[in-house]
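May I ask for an example protein's residues together with how it folds?

___
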Amino acid sequence: MNFIEQTAKRNNGKGPLEYTVLHACLLAYPHPGMKDEEIAKNRTTARTMLAEMHELVSSASTEEDWAKLRGVGTDADIFVDLARLWQDESLEKAIGAYQTAVSITTDEASESKSVDYRNIRLASNLGTLFHLQGNVETAERMYQEALSKIADEEGKEAEVAKTILAYNLARAYEDDGDVVKASQWYRDVLRQHPEHVECKLAF
């Protein structure tokens, strides 16, 4: 941490993007013994630094722009961290950062032509943010699209993802006033997992 901070100071914020991102990510997480005000200050600084990176990625339109980003702009974890930093302050900005992360992992998944469960989890989380924002229809669409990608998949990881998405979809339909569809999805979860507590309480 000290090495990164000293390097950042020497470069006056003009050093390699890798240092900026690493410095921001280190600042984003508290360390033992830190006071609350120091944690809050560090998180604000980290958010500002990563938001500037997000702006660079959002505005990149040419091969030269992407070359200047040195590969950092295709690291989904950076934008997941930024979304977390924004979540308590601005759902809109958190959603923007998560959309970038989902876009990156979607591109990676399409290249590999296999199911990327990380992309599925990120899409589910993005749907949850839309739900919290009150944009329930978009949340429903996000959950449905993610479910369609793993509809034919089997195994524990697929089962866990399907259960989470089905439950989230049921909640979205319920909040949207569609009790019939909500009940169908709650029942679907309970058929697979009869002891699913949240579904039992909601259904």
In short: Residues 33 and 137 are 44 Å apart (CA to CA).
